[in-house]
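Quick question, first post here. What does this chain look like in 3D?
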Amino acid sequence: MTLLFAGQVPFQGVWAAPAGGSSRPQSGLRKAALQARHQKIIHRLNLTTDQRQRIQAFKADHRKSMAEINAKIHVARVELENEMDKPKSDPAQVKILTEEIGRLKAARELENLKAKREIEKILTPEQNAELKRIQQENPAQDAVTAVDPPGE
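> Answer (accepted):
Ran it through. Tokens below.
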């Protein structure tokens, strides 16, 4: 999504969190570089105060949703690892946990896609076109993270 959001996606592009999400703290230099890039993107998009406020409010809710999904994925992975570490793991339980992880990852992608669409609704057609150009220049950045300052 993962629009204006880290492990946060256009979600795999300029607006979202990385598909895997990330809870690692960023180094000072990396955070500063991300903030500088964020400011350049904000400048290029020429967001109004209202757009910034709407995006920030939306992203706060989106980050909560993503955190919940990522936490569930983490728990399911730990449970799967624990099951696999047993001398005689239960194949049925391994299957259940693996399917749950897949379902949660799909839910995360859908949330990112919905977030991308919500961000696109906030932007003007010209801003959306500029965002697409930004994403083409830096395919690793998604729409959500493009307008989301690091560490917020």
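DSSP finds five helices and no strands in the chain.
The domain at 28-146 is CATH 1.20.120 (Four Helix Bundle (Hemerythrin (Met), subunit A)).
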